[in-house]
Amino acid sequence: QVQLVESGGGLVQPGGSLRLSCAASGSIFEIYTMHWYRQAPGKQRELVATITSGGSTNYVGSVKGRFTISRDNAKNTVYLQMNSLKAEDTAVYYCNTWPASYWGQGTQVTVSS
Question: What pLDDT does residue 27 have?
Fold first, then answer.
């Protein structure tokens, strides 16, 4: 069993930055691939960024060059640095593990002036 707790969301103006964190319980965090998903009102949940156990990363096209996913295995934590935020980034952001799928409760990100 893995428990995930996201934090770092909030209200930010367009062009601003936020860093999300996802802290995981358990002693085998380092073997999991970690994902960040987001879900905007009325839309399906979308995979935003992925980082493998080896540190390889991948991003959805709409966030490439603006978002950076990273992980600190010593702290059992994965991060999502979000820069140049846009209104369309507004969503609840969730972290997720693979291959065993665990989800956090989500953290709200609102980009608005």
Answer: 67
